[in-house]
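Hello K.,

You asked for the raw outputs rather than the summary table, so here they are, unedited. I folded two proteins back to back in the same session to keep the settings identical. This is the first:
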Amino acid sequence: MRTVEDPRVERTREVVVGHVRELVRLEGFHAVTPQRIASDTGVSRSTLHRHWPDIRSLLIEAIADPEPPVDTPLLGDLRLDLGVDLHGLRLRLSDRNTVALIVSMIGESLFDDGFAAILRSHADAHLGRLQRVLAAAHAAGVLRSDIDVTAAAASLAGPLFFRRLVLGEEITLDFVDAVIDGFIAAHTP
């Protein structure tokens, strides 16, 4: 972990990292260059290089922490709880900047373990409540006893990601409801 003695150094880091987050969100990883950052923030390229020896380390710092998901309490009804999570995911995936960030992280994660770890932490953060919903339903006997909660969460979220990221189609309310209904029909006793 790094320690910072000078508040000016910390402020410079905050300005640069915040700007890089916004660039990635609006334009993608390709927009992050030392020239662009220096020009946009007024921070010299030598200062950038002193703090981040390469663009990779700056990108990793900028996207490392996922936005915290809204932690909605469990409602105790499997269909409603699944709806909260999957309709929330539908809304996140309707934002083109969010989709662009996910696609960029997926692309980089294929070749870089650092980006793969960040992608995983983002996924874990956003699938955490869904896994809690499934674990609670499993403990209550609402789901079949042989269910794997982690695999079940992936099987619920997967169709939404596929439809949006691979097929490039919008995710409709009816599509989400069909995913939920199909899951409940296949996994309840």
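The second followed immediately with the same parameters:
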Amino acid sequence: MNISISQNPKDLGRSAGAAASEQIRKAIEAKGSAHIILATGASQFETINQLIAEKGIDWSKVVMFHLDEYIGITVTHPASFRRYLQERFLQKVPALKAAYLISGEGDPVSECKRVSDLITRHPIDVALVGIGENGHLAFNDPPADFETETPYIVVKLDEPCRKQQLGEGWFASLEEVPQSAISMSIRQIMKSTCIICSVPDQRKAMAVKNTLEQPVSNWYPASVLRSHRDCRFYLDKFSAELLSPGVVAAETI
């Protein structure tokens, strides 16, 4: 586990995006292709911007999956994560080898099976993730399921999670925020060779502290990242402000 603390979110994003691009290039060089997971939401803006700006990536050799999608909203909805990735990433890079997006429309159980079958054929080289204000990883709210081997699952969204989505401006009212979603499972995320975790902003400070200082527990879902063989945390001074000095001194790079 490595922790990098930047002075502002743009520096955080530049560092995280550069690290992700390095992993993508290495995978292409070693295997002829790279398989990636992209997260969405406000925490990923700068990281994705940097990834797009990076040179020397043959995007025609990249296969992309994404973490989660609300159940019951269309791709045209402002909060749709499919829309987010299409507008903020896929339309700004050359065509990928493949991009597998989750649909929140139709039967969620069938959709989980479809994307689960796909990802089992594509071992992930690098996953870009964030941490929710409630400590969730993807949409695995506490207490998260640490046991299921199913790659994509249907989950219920707790109120703190839904309030975060409202606070970030994706919805006009709490009542509009869906109560369920399709999410990549914890164990599937942890199968990634490298995990890049970008977490800017003071509102994430307690979640970051719990992730890095509480016992690894499904009540602090993102804490499981500490048990990964190559997880790199990219924080800014605001999201890191509650960390104990010993944690920062021991792990910061």
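The chain has a mean pLDDT of 95.

Happy to rerun anything if the numbers look odd on your end.

Regards,
P.
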